[in-house]
Give the backbone structure.
Amino acid sequence: MSHAIPNTTCCVYLNLREGLKYIYLVTIVLQMKVLTILPVLIGALMLIVIGVSWLITPASAGTASRYNLDYTDADTVAAGKMLYTQHCAACHGKSLEGQKSWRSRLPNGRLPAPPHDASGHTWHHPDKQLFELTKFGPAAIVGGGYQSDMPGYQDILSDSDILAVLAFIKSTWPAQIRERHDQMNLRSMPR
Ligand code: HEC
């Protein structure tokens, strides 16, 4: 009986050692698992972040960049000014003043070219409309056999040329008008 005690102690001790070894092994395996899973977890997390930011970004963001007039960019405005002088000034005026009595129809029923400065109504139209009016011409945009002296520029100017001309025009407006135009662009965006 007397030797049974150390035996039990020994067994408890051994069991304890076995147990610790087991816990130790499990910890290592778990650590390895975590290490291999970690990149996958990080990847999944990044996808979730990208997805959420895409969802909370207004749908208009893409549209805004497509037609956005870069009127604060000096190079764009300089290029647009040259294109304006070359292609638009003959009708809309060297200083964007438009043709005389531009509010009254000509004898042939067509409208004279309106000014593009703040006194006209160019700034009443959002970017997309200005772009389409220039690219396809007022007749195509109004439709229904509407006649206009202004041609469409789709075969003459590239899309970025058209945006540059319009950016130049916008750069000449007073800050207050530009701000109102920015606001109108935001309102006219498809949601
Ligand atoms: C041959 C003359 C002529 C030329 C050149 C011309 N336009 Fe016009 N444009 C007009 C006339 C006329 C109108 C009035 C629209 C109508 O007929 O109803 C007009 C209207 C516009 C409008 C609409 C303005 C508004 O307030 O409704 C825009 C924008 C415009 N022109 C941009 C341009 C740009 C940019 C160019 C140069 C790339 C250009 N135009 C060249 C004659 C011209």
Residues 126 and 175 are 16 Å apart (CA to CA).
